[in-house]
C-alpha cells in the first residue's frame, strides 16, 4: 500500500511539474531544474535526398568538384576532374543526361557558375591547373565554346595589371554583370576581387591572416539580394561578409564551424537559409539567413549528416525548384536534395 501511495505521489508531482512548465515562460530552465539535464533542441528536417537523380549515376566518369544550375533552361552543369574525361557534364533538372563538353581548354576545374540573366547566358569556370591553361577564370557559352579568359594562362601571380591569379577557387556573377572572385585555393593569394562587367578591377581585399578582411583559403563566394558578399573563409573556419559595392567588412560567422571549416556558401531560393558544405566531416549545414541589416552570429537550423567518406565539396541551388545540388569528392558523384 505504501508503495502504491508513493507511486501516486510521484505521478502527481510529475503532473504538477508539467502544468508548471506549461504555464512558465522559461520552460528550458524548469526542465533542467526538475530533471537535471537541458532539453535537446529539435532540429528541422528541411531537405531529403532525391535518390532518382540523376537517372544514370554511372555517367560521372571523373571526380565532380562543383555544380551549377541554369534555372532558366532547367540544366545542371557538373565540373569534374580526371584523365581522359570530359571536364563538364550537362544534365537536365529531371536527371537526364544531355551532353558533355569536348573542350581541351580546361585542366583542373574547381568552381563553376551559371550566369543566367537577361543580359547574359554563360558558364564561368575557375581553373586551378598548373599547366598552360591554369590559374585562370574562363567564360564559356552554354554549349562549351570558350568566350573569355581572365588571368594569365599558365602563370600564377598576384598582379592586377595584367591580371593574375594563383589557383582561383570560385566566382559569382551578379545579374548586372559584376564579378566576384575568390583567389585562391591554397595558392599565394588569399583575396577577394570585384570586377566590373567590362572586367576592370574595382577593388580587392584580403591577405593571409585572421583579422577581419583577411583570409586563409577563401573557397567560395556568393552575393545576396541585399548587396552582401558572403565568403567561405575555409582555413579560418568562418564566413566573412562584405558590402558588394565598397568591399567594406560587415561581419563574421565563426561559431558554427568548430569541427570543420565551411567549403561552400549558397543561399536558398526562398532566401531563408545558407547552405554550407563541410567536407572533412561529410555534413551539410543549413544556417538561418539574416534579413537586411546586421548579420549577428550564425544559427544552425538543420543538418544533413552524410556517410563517412562522401566529402561534399561545393553546392548550388536551383532558383526555380529550390533543389540543392551537391558535388561530392569522396562519393565521386553529384546528388540532389529537395524540400521535404
UniProtKB/TrEMBL annotation:
GO biological process, one term: protein polyubiquitination
Gene Ontology molecular-function annotations: ubiquitin protein ligase activity
Keyword Glycoprotein appears in the UniProt entry: yes
Keywords associated with the record: Glycoprotein, Repeat, Signal
Domain of life: Eukaryota
Keyword NAD: no
NHL repeat locations: 205-245
PANTHER family: E3 UBIQUITIN-PROTEIN LIGASE NHLRC1-RELATED, NHL REPEAT-CONTAINING PROTEIN 3
Name of this chain's protein: NHL repeat-containing protein 3
